[in-house]
Write a structure and sequence with these properties.
The complex is a heterodimer of chains A (741) and B (781).
Chain A lengths: L7 E9 L5 E9 L4 H12 L26 H10 L15 H6 L16 H12 L11 E7 L2 E3 L5 E3 L1 E6 L4 E3 L5 E4 L5 E3 L4 E4 L4 E9 L2 E9 L14 H13 L9 H13 L5 H9 L5 H10 L2 H14 L10 H16 L4 H9 L11 H6 L3 H12 L19 H8 L5 E5 L6 E5 L6 E2 L6 E2 L2 E2 L2 E2 L9 H9 L7 H14 L19 H13 L4 H10 L26 E2 L2 H12 L22 H4 L1 H5 L19 H9 L1 H8 L4 H7 L4 H13 L5 H12 L12 H17 L2 H4 E2 L1
Parallel strand pairs in A: 4-12
Antiparallel strand pairs in A: 1-2, 3-6, 5-10, 6-7, 8-11, 9-10, 11-12, 13-14, 15-16, 17-18, 19-20
Helix pairs in contact in A: 1-4, 5-17, 6-8, 8-18, 9-10, 11-15, 13-14, 16-17, 16-18, 22-23, 24-27, 25-26, 26-27
Chain B lengths: L1 H10 L25 H11 L9 E2 L5 E6 L2 E3 L3 E9 L6 E4 L4 E7 L5 E10 L6 E9 L2 E2 L3 E6 L3 E3 L11 E2 L4 E6 L6 E7 L4 E7 L9 E6 L5 E5 L5 E4 L4 E9 L9 E8 L31 E2 L10 E2 L4 E6 L6 E8 L4 E7 L9 E11 L2 E11 L26 E6 L4 E9 L11 E7 L4 E8 L16 E5 L2 E11 L7 E5 L5 E6 L7 E8 L6 E13 L2 E12 L13 E3 L3 E10 L2 E5 L4 E5 L3 E10 L3 E2 L2 E8 L8 E4 L4 E7 H4 L4 E15 L4 H33 L2 H38 L3 E8 L3 E6 L5
Parallel strand pairs in B: 1-49, 3-10, 11-13, 12-14, 21-23, 22-24, 31-38, 32-40, 42-50
Antiparallel strand pairs in B: 2-4, 4-7, 5-8, 6-7, 8-9, 8-10, 13-20, 14-19, 15-18, 15-20, 16-17, 16-19, 23-30, 24-29, 25-28, 25-30, 26-27, 26-29, 31-33, 33-36, 34-37, 35-36, 37-38, 37-40, 38-39, 41-43, 43-47, 44-48, 45-46, 45-48, 48-49, 48-50
Classes of the chains: A alpha+beta (741), B mainly beta (781).
Chain lengths: 741, 781
């Protein structure tokens, strides 16, 4: 018979004063040690129920299965107390329990020592066993929230801040769970945190966030790490974006770089809106334009150009998985790409575009967004993609267990999946291509764990009863495009912010959650409000972003903002993405890259699907995505040796430079003075004329004798061709060319 | 030194990790190809191996008219039309489906007929619309190609226009006929004035083109303004006087002869309705409209009624409405009594719209002031009477869909009182298209039927995915089978007899009826072995007794727009045909004829075995010696397949009436299977080419001798005549050279004819001459 003696536990309970400072009072209460409230947190802190350990899917470790992070304490209790023929616990001699001997490393344990003998946690578990291993005490309060103290603050560079985690229970009691909570820094580059809750700011100014988790509840600590430099002046404020960016810079004391020059702006904004270099004519005309609002004029012209639609279609197409898996996919892929591109060209409002995609019906050719349902067939994948892409919410974890960083449960997951439960399919004449229709009936999805049939609900929001005749996806679209929706507009403006400013206000851009706060919440909220009030007008959003002086800051750092990586105190340069770079090289060299099935002169940013990656080493090397993931991270923007080698020495680049009708050959035969021709080259490449130093180097190079492979002087014609090719080659290999800056 | 300078240039402004310092500018090398080009070509070749390289072709050659250029013309005009097609030799006539369109061959200055060119006259009273063109050639009447007639002046694009600089100028209110350039965008330009309304429309699929047109309206610099990709038109009000550009391309940038189009630039006052360019009808349109239906509905949807509110109607009803705007649900309420039976028919897809109408009917009651709805019916789709091809590995059904997403169903009223009918488009959740009209008819039962047929397809070899267009161009001694399907209306369940009228001499037709309760029948069209060359317009129809009245309905014919040899590579596109021409070629006979030994009614008593002796006429070698024959028949039961030896002149078909339990009565039947003929294409052409070559050789030899003789003569004549003789000798030499060129051409023609005439394995359907049998009752002893 198991002894169930009563055990007194002394708890330390923390309470808050009005000032926010933590006061700790020692109060004693006699209580039963609860598996749910006392033992599970120990197992979580020790890592026993991590997904890589005993919570691993398919049986845990060696038959000992726990729920992920202890979200199912009742199941864990049964697993420890009742399963394994009771061998995991030994009430007669608690310290001989397998749970403790393994945890303390007294017997072989693959996970190592997790509960050192004699530690407080070890003793508590032992006491619990001795107490008779109750699951919970009568009327035991439940955990309702977690608080972290302080919630926000200012941490000097290099300084430390101890956090305190407070669990709040349903009976109003609070408990200091600092040692048992889990800590994770959202901004590794800026701050570290120990598992005791000690935050250590690094030397980089900015905003830091630390996520604190305890028993399924999360809290977040945010703080500014100011530079503290005087910000005497900022560029004139052009719109609400500038207000919030510059206010933040003043607050944390980072002086911004000045506004960039005209040529840099034109090149930057043309690359960012239209995915191409400014043409020679555009660069020349822009330089000659003396209007005060010529930058705004340029933005308008770009927004009105088809290249805007082409470029932003190239952003959405991989995320919407327009993937060529079979030759017969070509029609649907071209149609789907064209639908995205045409919608952007016509500036169809974003909510309408998403609505047309979400609730698409019919055949692909007649209604191209149906193509998304051709590629994404599993309702679970549909909900996960929609949540991540359009709401910035990652629901994947919640399919199997409560989301560890978020409030999403399996019920939330499957009730979201229920929106996609009435999608009917009929085969069409095209292989593997169904037509999509709304299958009349009440939408429901089963929670695979509980078996409960759940009606559609949108991330915890009720959307009301959906009659059988109504396509539930339309109701989902209604919910998404509601001005009150907390995710939809936010996810988009954050995604677009990242496009123009390199770093999202929330990073990753599709992981929006309470525990991953934006670096500038006021700015994000203002962008969201503006986007909603504009009627989800994508061009207006781009207009506001690119008109701001925040966007137009120089890339060149000053002494204070060199280390800034998240406050937008200067423009963050980034490498041109694969398609843009290939087009830029074609523009510079005066060539066209041929693509199968497409007319000569088709730009790489207008490619409809991923199939061209297979035939283009360039696109592969520079990281064009393969439309396999809903995450923008599939596009590889990092640099590599292969990229350098390709630009320096590939047959493709050589052929472009040496093409008879190419720019280098044309310039070699052009009778104009070299100075004019070098200027043309620089205007095409950089939207600016060469600096005197650059011009001198170029002219000197062009006039120097050229030797052939045998070391003999080349004839004049061949030498000029070679020299112009080399000059083009040097420019296209320059960082100024390869980067948007 | 040069390298250093370039490095310096390349480094200027560099501040990134992608530094490429220290490389040498002048040592760019070419990376080796890992796979030799020839090997690559082989690998690619394997992946795209065309069906033509199979050892065995499918279906004997049939004449097919594939293109006309231009594809139409203006009423009252005369135009020169160039044609092209498959298996077209000795084209005698270009035939149109309207008597107001007449063609005569074009002749050159010498009065010689120019091959494949016709002067077409469109009568002033020919109504605008789409018609069919066909040619009568050596093998008979060809498949059809749409020919459009319109009111606007027409032009044909006659030079490349694939860039903005080469944009083809078009006047407003013009139709341009053009063939899409492969992997390119065709450019047009026009000038319009501010405020003018311009409608840009492009006919393609509706006129038999393979083009899936993308039409773009752009500014003068070529910058896209509006794009239409779904077959609609661009309706544009000109914002500023000036030049505008229209770009046209295929959705996947395909081009070439089959990708033709008619681009219309029309002006119209704002607010005026402008119909789309006319086109052909889809196969499933055969079942619309029901006989006797007025062109316009008696009632229209009241679009002022707010969503969720009902329009009150009284049954019976015939009304028109629209699925507009997106997610539109039109609600109608009517009163009906328990036990009433109504028939509901909706047309929308059959009107050419890409919709999927659905209806839900509820009974509406009030209980304690609360509305109580009881579902009465959910109506959706007209299923195809038989399985449609899945375009899978092998034949699994005809590549024609006689079904529709429209509605034709019974509505049984279960309770007295108010009923609420909601009609909506299952494809319409997000699509706002004012063209998405529907016609809703609720009527008392009016039993009837609609028929559609097409040339029979069946599995002819492993992996057979052919969907070829098959004109009824008969060879002597052949029988062609047409598969006929019925859509039955309002509970009509009786048998339907199938008949053909208006056949040419020597041609007969036999209908294997559609039995009561069934939906499939067969029409067999047989040419006698010695049938003379001829062509006539036939009429297919079905007759049935409906409620004591003999009712006759037209059977529409459908065919493929293009012969598709492999449906996994190209989706077959069928359409309804406008007329049913039948021809016999009079020269080439069927490779294999199977016919009952005598023309008689074969009699047997129920329960006996009936033996029908068959004659087999094999006119060429065949691959294999046996052919497995199945039986077309209706009401006799399923006759087991049996083999015949086609190397023998006779065979027997033995029908076990006992096993089949065939009831007494008269039946039509025919035996069918497939045979692989070693077919020679147009062997007469070889003889003709040989004769032509002989003549050319003789001519060349004669001219050579003449030239030599004159050359010799020039040496011996007097000085004053020498120049003349030398000139004549020179001319003779030139003539000789021309004759040699003609001789070489004749050699090539012979080579080509010989090559085509080489025996080639072609598998095709073989159908016996039909026969009649009479099953007599068992004799009472």
């Amino acid at each position: 018979m198991i002894s169930r003696s009563c055990f007194l536990v002394i708890c330390t309970v923390a309470v808050l004063t009005g000032s926010g400072r933590i006061l700790v009072h020692a109060s004693e209460s006699a209580r039963v040690i609860s598996f749910r409230n006392d033992i599970t947190p120990i197992l979580t802190k020790a890592g026993c129920n991590a997904g890589s350990c005993h919570a691993k899917a398919g049986g845990g470790q060696n038959g000992f299965q726990l729920s992920v992070l202890g979200y199912e304490p009742r199941e864990d209790y049964e697993s420890i107390v009742l399963e394994g023929r009771g061998r995991r616990l030994f009430p007669a001699a608690a310290e001989q329990s397998l749970l403790l001997t393994k945890g303390a490393g007294k017997v072989s344990h693959g996970g190592g020592i997790r509960l050192p003998e004699g530690s407080a946690n070890y003793e508590l578990v032992k006491a619990w066993i001795n107490q008779g291993m109750p699951f919970e005490s009568p009327n035991e309060p439940t955990l309702i929230s977690l608080e972290v103290h302080p919630g926000k603050g200012i941490v000097a560079r290099g300084a430390e801040q101890q956090l305190q985690a407070i669990a709040v229970y349903s009976d109003g009691t609070q408990r200091d769970v600092t040692p048992l909570a889990l800590y994770e820094s959202n901004t590794d580059g800026l701050a570290d945190v120990t598992q005791a809750g000690l935050v250590k700011a690094r030397d980089i100014p900015g905003r830091i966030a630390v996520m604190v988790r305890y028993q399924g509840k999360v809290a977040v600590f945010t703080a500014a790490v100011p530079l503290g430099a005087p910000v005497d002046s900022v560029p004139p404020v052009r719109n609400f974006i500038d207000e919030h960016v510059f206010a933040n810079l003043r607050e944390i004391g980072i002086p911004p770089s000045p506004v960039c020059d005209d040529a840099t702006f034109l090149r930057r904004v043309t690359l960012d809106i239209a995915g191409r270099l400014p043409t020679l004519e555009e660069a020349t005309a822009f330089a000659a334009n003396s209007s005060a609002d010529k930058r705004d004029q340029a933005i308008e012209a770009l927004l009105g150009s088809p290249h805007y639609a082409d470029y932003f279609a190239s952003k959405w197409v991989p995320l919407l998985k327009n993937r060529r898996d079979d030759a017969s996919d070509i029609t649907s892929n071209f149609a789907f790409h064209a639908w995205i591109r045409d919608s952007l060209l016509a500036n169809v409002s974003y909510d309408q575009m998403v609505r047309e995609l979400l609730a698409a019906t019919g055949t692909v050719v007649e209604n191209p967004p149906v193509a998304w349902y051709k590629r994404v067939k599993d309702p679970k994948e549909q909900l996960e993609d929609v949540a991540q892409l359009f709401l910035g919410v990652r629901m994947q974890c919640a399919q199997c267990h409560h989301h560890p960083f978020e409030r999403w449960s399996q019920d939330d997951y499957y009730s979201f999946a229920a929106f996609f439960s009435q999608i009917g399919r009929k085969p069409t004449a095209t292989r593997n291509e169904d037509l999509i229709f709304h299958k009349r009936g009440l939408a429901k999805a089963n929670n695979v764990k509980t078996g409960e049939a759940l009606v559609p609900a949108a991330l915890g929001d009720s959307v009301g009863a959906i009659p059988a005749a109504l396509d539930p996806r339309l109701r989902l679209a209604d919910w998404m495009s509601s001005p009150e929706n907390p995710f939809f507009a936010k996810a988009l403006v954050n995604r677009y912010w990242k496009h123009f400013f390199k770093r999202g206000l929330i990073e990753p851009e599709d992981d929006i959650r309470d525990t991953n706060p934006p670096t500038n919440p006021e700015l994000l909220a203002a962008l969201e409000r503006h986007f909603i009030s504009s009627g989800y007008d994508l061009k207006e959003l781009v207009r506001q972003m690119t008109r701001s002086h925040a966007y137009q800051l120089s890339v060149m750092p000053n002494e204070q903002n060199l280390l800034d990586e998240q406050n937008y105190s200067r423009f963050y340069a980034r490498r041109l993405q694969a398609e843009v770079l290939l087009d830029a090289i074609d523009d510079l060299t005066g060539t066209n890259t041929p693509f199968a099935n497409l007319p000569s002169g088709t730009r790489a940013i207008a490619l409809p699907d991923n199939s061209y990656n297979r035939s283009s080493k360039f696109l592969q090397v520079f990281g064009r995505p393969n439309s396999a993931s809903v995450c923008e991270c599939e596009r590889v923007q990092s640099s590599s040796l292969a990229q350098s080698l390709h630009l320096i020495n590939s047959a493709e680049m050589k052929a472009k430079l040496a093409l008879n009708t190419g720019r280098a050959m044309r310039l070699a035969q052009d009778a104009r003075p070299d100075e004019e021709k070098v200027t043309e080259l620089y205007l095409v490449a950089f939207a600016r004329p060469p600096k005197p130093e650059e011009l001198n180097i170029a002219l000197e190079y062009l006039q120097a004798p050229v030797l052939d492979a045998a070391g003999q002087p080349m004839d004049a014609t061949a030498a000029r061709r070679q020299a112009w090719q080399d000059l083009c080659w040097a420019i296209l290999n320059s960082k100024e060319f390869l980067f948007n800056h | 030194m040069k390298t250093d300078a370039l490095s310096q240039l390349a480094r200027l402004g560099d501040n990134s990790p992608l530094a490429t310092k220290g490389r040498v500018a002048t040592t760019r090398t070419t990376l080796p190809l890992l796979v030799p080009p020839c090997m690559l070509a082989c690998l690619l070749g394997l992946a795209i191996m065309p069906a033509a390289v199979w050892g065995q072709a499918v279906c004997l050659p049939a004449p097919r008219l594939l293109t006309t250029l231009p594809m139409g013309g203006q009423v009252g005009s005369q135009i020169e039309v160039t044609i092209s097609g498959d298996n077209l030799e000795e084209v005698e006539e270009l035939h149109f489906s309207h008597p107001g369109i007449i063609a005569v061959p074009v002749k050159d200055a010498q009065g010689t007929t120019v091959p494949n060119r016709f002067l077409v006259t469109i009568a002033q009273d020919c109504p605008p619309g789409v018609y069919e063109a066909r040619v009568l050639s050596r093998l008979g009447i060809s498949s059809s190609r749409v020919f459009s007639v319109g009111n606007l002046p027409e032009v044909t694009r006659d030079k490349p226009n694939t860039t903005l600089n080469t944009a083809f100028s078009l006047a407003l209110d013009t139709i341009c006929n053009a063939v899409m350039t492969n992997q390119a965008v065709d450019h047009y330009k026009f000038t319009a004035e501010q405020g003018q309304r311009v409608i840009v429309d492009c006919a393609a699929g509706g006129i038999d083109s393979k083009l899936q047109p993308v039409v773009i309206l752009a500014n003068a610099q070529g910058g896209d303004l509006l794009v239409e990709r779904r077959g609609g038109s661009i309706d544009f009000q000109i914002p500023a006087t000036g030049e505008y550009v229209v770009k046209v391309h295929d959705l996947t940038y395909k081009g070439g002869a089959p990708y033709f189009y008619r681009l219309a630039l029309r002006t119209a006052p704002v607010g005026q309705s402008v119909p789309s360019l006319p086109g052909t009808r889809n196969v499933n349109a055969f079942s619309w409209p029901p006989p006797g239906l007025p062109e316009l509905a008696a009632l229209g949807e009241d679009e002022t009624i707010a969503a969720g509110q009902a329009q009150q109607i009284t049954l019976p009803v015939d009304l028109s409405g629209r699925f507009y705007p997106a997610a539109d649900v039109d609600t109608y309420e009517f009163t009906a009594s328990k036990g009433e039976v109504w028939w509901v028919e909706v047309a929308s897809e059959r009107l050419g719209r890409t919709t999927d109408p659905a209806i839900i009917v509820h009974h509406v009651a009030q209980e304690n002031g609360v509305e109580k709805l009881t579902e009465v019916a959910e109506l959706n789709d007209i299923p195809s009477p038989i399985k449609v091809s899945s375009n899978g590995y092998s034949y699994d059904g005809p590549p024609y869909n006689a079904g529709s997403t429209d509605i034709l169903a019974k509505l049984e009223i279960k309770q007295d009182g108010l009923h609420r009918l909601e009609i909506y488009d299952l494809f319409g959740g997000t699509r706002t298209d004012p063209r998405n009209e529907y016609r809703l008819i609720i009527r008392k039962a009016a039993p009837d039927f609609a028929l559609v047929g097409w040339a029979l397809h069946m599995n002819l070899r492993n992996g057979d995915r052919n969907a070829l267009s098959k004109p009824i161009a008969l060879r002597g001694g052949s029988t062609m089978a047409m598969e006929v399907l019925a859509i039955r209306r309002d509970g009509f369940n009786g048998e339907i007899q199938l008949e053909v009228e208006g056949l040419p001499a020597g041609v007969t037709a036999t209908g294997i009826k559609i039995p009561a309760g069934e939906t499939r029948g067969i029409v067999l069209i047989t040419a006698d072995s010695d049938a003379p060359r001829g062509m006539s317009l036939a009429r297919l129809h079905g007759t049935a007794e409906i409620e004591g009245v003999q009712t006759k309905r037209r059977c529409f014919l459908a065919s493929m727009k293009w012969p598709v040899p492999d449906a996994s590579q190209e989706i077959p596109q069928p359409r309804l045909e406008l007329e049913v021409p039948v021809s016999v070629n009079g020269s080439e006979q069927a490779p294999l004829t199977i016919t009952p030994a005598t023309h008689q009614v074969w009699e047997a008593r129920a329960g006996e075995k009936l033996t029908i002796p068959l004659n087999i006429i094999s006119r060429c070698d065949h691959s294999g010696t046996t052919v497995s024959l199945s039986t077309f028949c209706a009401g006799m039961g399923r006759v087991p397949a049996f083999d015949i030896n086609i190397t023998q002149p006779t065979a027997e078909a033995v029908i076990d009436l006992a096993a089949l339990k065939t009831p007494p009565g008269e039946y039509q039947l025919a035996f069918y299977g497939s045979a692989v003929a070693k077919y020679r294409y147009h062997p007469e052409a070889v003889t003709q080419a040989e004769q032509a070559l002989l003549l050319a050789k003789q001519e060349a030899e004669q001219l050579e001798a003449e030239a030599k003789s004159l050359a010799e003569l020039a040496k011996s004549v007097m000085e004053e005549e020498r120049a003349n003789v030398e000139k004549t000798a020179q001319e003779a030499m030139e003539n000789h050279k021309k004759a040699v060129a003609r001789m070489k051409a004749a050699e090539q023609a012979l080579q080509a004819a010989t090559s085509k005439a080489k025996p080639k394995d072609i598998v095709d359907i073989v159908v016996s001459t039909p026969c009649s049998i009479r099953v007599l009752p068992v004799e009472n002893k």
